[in-house]
Write a structure and sequence with these properties.
The protein is mostly loops. The protein contains 1 helix and 2 strands.
C-alpha cells in the first residue's frame, strides 16, 4: 500500500531538517551490521511517495526511507543522508546531491539525468538501470556499487572511476547514446 505525502506537510521540530521523523542527535550513521537490501526489510513494507521537487533539503535525513516512485526533481539534497533507503524509480533529474550519503540504498530505475552528485558516497548501493546522461559523478565513492544496465558512460566521471566501472560494468556493444 502506498501513501502520497508532500514533504512540506511533514512535522519537524524547530531548527531541524528531518524526513521520516529521524533526528541527527538521536541517530548515528554506523557502517556495517546492516540488514542488506532495504527493499527486503519486513518492518516497513509500505512505501511513502513524497514530492520534494524544487525544494531545499540540504542536510536532510531520509535514512531508511521507503520512497519508491517519489520526485526529487531539481531538489537541493546537498549533504543529505539517504542511507539504507529504497529510492527505486525516483526522479532525481537535475537534483543537487553534492556530498550526499547514498550508501546501502536502492536506486534501481531512478533518473539522474543532469544531477550533480559530486563527492557523493555511493558504495554498496544499487544503481541498476538508471539514466545517468549528463550527471556529474566526479569524486564519488561508487566503485563498489552495482551499476548494471545504467548508462554511466554518459555521465561526467573521474578517469579512475571510469576505468573501474568499464572493467566491472562494460558498455554494451549495441547501446545507443540516446536516452
Amino acid at each position: 500500500m502506498e501513501r502520497k505525502t508532500d514533504s512540506r506537510s511533514l512535522p519537524m521540530p524547530a531548527g531541524h531538517t528531518s524526513i521520516n521523523n529521524q533526528h541527527p542527535e538521536c541517530n548515528m550513521v554506523m557502517s556495517g551490521g546492516g540488514a542488506g537490501d532495504p527493499r527486503d526489510d519486513p518492518e516497513s513494507s509500505e512505501s511513502e511517495i513524497i514530492d520534494c521537487s524544487y525544494q531545499n533539503h540540504t542536510k536532510a535525513i531520509f535514512r531508511k526511507g521507503r520512497h519508491r516512485g517519489s520526485t526529487f526533481r531539481r531538489a537541493i539534497l546537498d549533504e543529505a543522508d539517504l542511507t539504507e533507503g529504497d529510492f527505486s524509480e525516483c526522479d532525481f533529474r537535475r537534483a543537487s546531491m553534492v556530498e550526499a550519503d547514498l550508501m546501502k540504498s536502492a536506486f534501481d530505475g531512478a533518473d539522474f539525468r543532469g544531477a550533480d552528485l559530486r563527492k557523493a558516497r555511493c558504495n554498496l548501493s544499487n544503481f541498476r538501470n538508471c539514466k545517468m546522461k549528463g550527471a556529474d559523478l566526479r569524486g564519488i565513492r561508487g566503485k563498489y556499487a552495482i551499476w548494471q544496465g545504467s548508462d554511466w558512460w554518459n555521465a561526467i566521471l573521474n578517469e579512475d572511476l571510469e576505468k573501474a566501472l568499464a572493467k566491472k560494468w562494460p558498455r554494451p556493444d549495441n547501446h545507443s547514446d540516446s536516452s
